[in-house]
Write a structure and sequence with these properties.
The protein is mostly helical. The protein contains six helices and three strands, in the order ααβααββαα. It is globular and about 60 Å long.
Length: 154
């Protein structure tokens, strides 16, 4: 659905592209995260499990930065995950402010069992695009993401 905004051609083109990007992302996100509620996970909790599974233990601050979350939000997410025995958080002996986050055995099992299904859903969704289109999409999304960061001063 194109924009109904009565703006300049530049504004209309940007809004139309943005609307399509948002709708495509929301459709794909809904499909890829539908099963998370069956696992009792939020999207943020899944992202933590996936990051720790593929990257290994990291500090809460690095994890928040990697997942584009605030440190306050990350603390809340991690507390809930710790209650479920999916992760552990350990304070550094050298610096009491530093907390290392790592998967527990049950957290590792949960993500290892679920992740192949998650990948299959993404592959199915992306199959509407050719390999070249998938690469072009990845390039354009990276360019857009980096451009937004640069222009906003982050």
């Amino acid at each position: 659905m194109p924009t109904q905004y009565d703006g300049t051609p530049t504004e209309i083109r940007a809004l139309n592209a943005y609307i399509k990007l948002q709708r495509a992302a929301e459709t794909s996100l809904t499909r890829t995260t539908r099963q998370l509620s069956d696992l009792g996970l939020t999207l943020s909790q899944f992202a933590v499990l996936e990051a720790l599974y593929h990257l290994g233990p990291m500090s809460q601050t690095d994890l928040a930065e990697k997942l584009l979350k605030s440190t306050g939000n990350m603390t809340s997410v991690l507390k809930n995950m710790e209650k479920r025995d999916l992760i552990t958080r350990e304070r550094s002996a050298e610096d009491n402010r530093y907390r290392s986050v790592q998967l527990t055995d049950s957290g590792r099992t949960l993500i290892a069992d679920y992740f192949p299904n998650h990948v299959n859903i993404i592959v199915e969704d992306m199959a509407v695009l050719t390999a070249a289109e998938q690469e072009q999409l990845a390039h354009l999304c990276r360019k857009l993401g980096l451009g937004v960061i640069v222009s906003s001063g982050d």
